[in-house]
Amino acid sequence: MTxxxxxxxxxxxxxxxxxxxxxxFSIEEGECFGFLGPNGAGKSTTMRMIHCVSPLTSGTLxxxxxxxxxxxxxxxxxxxxxxxxxxxxxxxFTVHKNLxxxxxxxxxxxxxxxxxxxxxxxxxQLKEKRDxxxxxxxxxxxxxxxxxxxxINDPRILxxxxxxxxxxxxxxxxxxxxxxxxxxxxxxxxxxxxYMDEAEQLCDRLIILDKGKIVxxxxxxxxxxxxxxxxxxxxIPPSDELIQLVIKNGWNFERYADRIFVYTNDSAAVLAQIxxxxxxxxxxxxxxxxxxxxxxxxxxGLVE
Length: 304
Fold this sequence. Notes:
Shape: globular
Number of helices: 11
Strand order of the largest sheet: 6-7-8-3-9-10
Low-confidence stretches: none
Strand content: 25-35%
Number of strands: 14
CATH class of the largest domain: Alpha Beta
Helix content: 25-40%
CATH superfamily of the largest domain: P-loop containing nucleotide triphosphate hydrolases
Distance between the termini: 38 Å
Radius of gyration: 23 Å
CATH topology of the largest domain: Rossmann fold
CATH architecture of the largest domain: 3-Layer(aba) Sandwich
Structural class: alpha/beta
């Protein structure tokens, strides 16, 4: 595979604040690579360095064979599409006009820009809204248009910064389908999201950041198997008797305010050993998810 992004000891400081603390990673052509982490973990800062919006404090960052410190940043930006968190469409223009005007930033000839705009409107299922003003669009339609706009320059890398926040399930799944289609076209997708199911569905590989450092890296399924297990047994309440029994048996567990989580590959067998020995109000057996990994590695406390 072809490596399109390679970071070595990448660091970003804002005064005394260390936002990205010397991380290293590589991203291959045509894969979806995720940056996960709580607020302030360094995800958006890392992506801003990749698309040359924020300069490095130290380390090296190579994007599509170009060093972001040494090569022309305009050349790198021309090969990247960016979907920001906020909806920053021009309200004075129609759907089609938003795309053609944006194409001018890349010096795309007007006839070609109009052709690409129509193709992307079709691709993102916006054909019926082609001539609508932005104020007439729902939140989901606006997000789809922003993704179409990010593709107007036919980028080799697409950066998606929380692309489906606030969208209904139908809109989310349409965007997921389009991301998969782009991967088939060898477009490299970089994703940040707070939806762990989204990362689990889309990402070939990902890193979890916490306080500017990488705390886990790999394929979502492999991370689940490594850091938790294939199943989770939730039990309520987390009594002292229950915790003593769990510790005695050497099971991998976590305790929280109202319940205890036991990570195991055979939840039914574990539950059978517990029932009748300690009182339980409720027990739940479910498959482990990437969210379990995320919360185990970064904690369950709120980060502001």
